[in-house]
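Customer ticket, subject: "Can you confirm the structure for Peptide hydrolase?"

Message body: Hello, I'm evaluating your service for our small team and ran a test protein. I'd like someone to confirm that this is what the system normally returns, since I don't have a reference to compare against.
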Amino acid sequence: MMKSLLSTLLLLCTLVSVNAVPVVPLSTTDIKAKSAQGLRLLTLAEGVAPVWKTESEVLDLIRGGKKFFDVTETYEVELKIASARTSGDVSIQQTYAAPSHQTAVKAILATMTSANMQTYLTTLTAFNNRYYKSATGASASTWIANTAKDIATKYGRTDVEVSLFAHSFVQSSIIVRIPGTNTANPRVLLGAHMDSINLSNPTSGRAPGADDDGTGTVNLLEAYRALLQGNFRPTSTVEFQFYAAEEAGLLGSQAIATKYKNDGVAVRGHYQLDMTGYFKPGTKEVMALAPDYIDSSLNEFTKLLITAYASIPWGTDLACGYACSDHASFNKVGYPTTYPFEAVTGNDNQLIHSASDTTSVSGFSWSHSLEFAKVAAAFAYELGI
Ligand SMILES: *[C@@H]1O[C@H](CO)[C@@H](O)[C@H](O)[C@H]1NC(C)=O
Ligand SMILES: [Zn+2]
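Agent reply: Thanks for trying us out. I re-ran your input and got the following:
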């Protein structure tokens, strides 16, 4: 994840041009032919038609901090979803009751430790990088799946399902599912991206990705572990999702969100974690909530969770902008999402996407990161039980 004031300005400019461009749908044959030539189809702003870019143009956009959706593989299913929506499938705004399971939730949160997260992160950052096209990026994905399976085994949970969600590249997304006793209920989703990137040399350069997004990844692993230790048996299915290829245009999260929407999966809420381990020394420590491309009712619920279960307050972040992290993939198809970020933008970690994204950065704080993991577990419990 990387935001800039420029992207905020671009967002403001593009908001006024929504629906200004009449979009002529591309044909399946055209998409197949162009992607076979190695071109990628990107959307760069709200309401603007997608454009074809070469792989090297895509890398230049990433290096320039420009955020986009790579819709090469999801464009057609998105069109299907959009046409279903105009023929009457309007998503209804959901409501969220105040947190009401304090005793049970606090007992689970008391078992969560940064030491567990540090152990997970040591392995994750030891992969040379977790780039979505590299062998080590694929190995990191396998490691996350095996770790989730080991945790289920440790707590005797044969009901938990760990599955690889395969893509057209070597890194798979991972879905860790705690099935609810009522499978008709909308699902509760929590997400983080597993990939990392070295901007100067994506394929083989060093990219430990400790904060971006090793922290979100290990927050979810520890929340999941603590819930199983606490014998969490939800009514609604709860899923921990680890996305491939966020840095390359939100590929993993878009593939999952569009598949779920197209399959008619109902979602209660999605909680995104992307960078939770840093706040600029000397600044106020908060959980900074993205104000855009989120669901305002779910966001109010997250504020209540933070007040009830975290030892730091919530804050309001600056606009994250178009396609800024995986929550945007869920927002795009009409699922409610919320995104607490490590600091108000400007006070966040500036050393990401490089060999320097490590835990030894001054301002990196495990106790800060643990708060995001605790609120993740509380989110899963309060909405899932
Ligand atoms: C990318 O990786 C190379 C080699 O591992 C390293 O020397 C370089 O500093 C990295 N680039 C960035 C932007 O960190
Ligand atoms: Zn990120």
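A couple of notes from the result: Confidence is low (pLDDT under 50) at residues 5-22. The chain has twelve helices and twelve strands. Feel free to reply with more questions.
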